[in-house]
């Protein structure tokens, strides 16, 4: 399984709403003692870990292509390791902050990272949708997703990232439907 967290590289974007996928990958990397794989061909940071029961290799990926070109990194890793199952963790404007939803396939909803992945590997992958809420005005979307979480949201961020990482660990051994029924979460009161 290839688990992809979406975000943008660089310290300017590190704590922004758009980087929630990167934050979950960082948490999983620590928990699973994933080892870094070196190859500039992958256009991203790639980590490998092994399922202790099945001894199957799994991968964590943070594309470093910037959000709009995420699919370039995903296709390279997917093809090189001949991976069938792909899971993408991403921010979702259509869900309130703190919401966690799971689905397979579907549209990109205007998310440029998903749009790029769809163009490279098709829509046939699992999505872990992390709600970040919406700005008051539609014209503020770009600045909103590239802004840091509010102080109130930051109070809940670690717990939410941990909950999402728990869900991904569960997903390694269970179906997407079972993971959804166990870990789907409504937004917090921010």
From TrEMBL:
The record marks 8 as: Discriminates between blocked and unblocked aminoacyl-tRNA. GO terms for molecular function: peptidyl-tRNA hydrolase activity; tRNA binding. It catalyses: an N-acyl-L-alpha-aminoacyl-tRNA + H2O = an N-acyl-L-amino acid + a tRNA + H(+). One of its GO terms (biological process) is rescue of stalled ribosome. The record marks 91 as: Stabilizes the basic form of H active site to accept a proton. PROSITE patterns: PEPT_TRNA_HYDROL_1, PEPT_TRNA_HYDROL_2. The active site is at 18 (proton acceptor). It is found in: Cytoplasm. Gene3D superfamilies: Peptidyl-tRNA hydrolase. It comes from the Bacteria. TRNA binds at residues 13, 66, 68, 112. Its main location: cytoplasm. It is an enzyme of class 3 (hydrolase). Its EC number is 3.1.1.29. One of its GO terms (cellular component) is cytoplasm. Keywords: Cytoplasm, Hydrolase, RNA-binding, tRNA-binding. Transmembrane segments: none annotated. Monomer. Belongs to the PTH family. Catalyzes the release of premature peptidyl moieties from peptidyl-tRNA molecules trapped in stalled 50S ribosomal subunits, and thus maintains levels of free tRNAs and 50S ribosomes. This is Peptidyl-tRNA hydrolase.
